[in-house]
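Batch manifest, entry 17 of 40.
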Amino acid sequence: MEDGMKLEWGRRITGKLLETWPKDENGELIEPVFLTHCMSFDMRDEMIVNLLNAYDIPCVRQYPADGDFGRLIIGMSGQGVDIYVPKTMYEDAVNLTEGSAEYEEL
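Output type: structure tokens
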């Protein structure tokens, strides 16, 4: 495996995600951090991922327990999905996904 292609928990990223994931001053990938856990049946995970992508915040989905198998068989994970973002973009991702008090008053 090439250097810079492995995230902290051992998952490989390739293609567009590898190109868009931010790197530090040494060219190493920025550490991914946990953003949120969603259940798949309400499509919240898809909405969050699409919102992050619209604002150029790359993200990785990880399916806990046997979630990958459920996703393969029935099209969704019964265990939900964990969404990770680059540590340097975490605050922006939280503001986008949870909203801001400033906008809630409008």
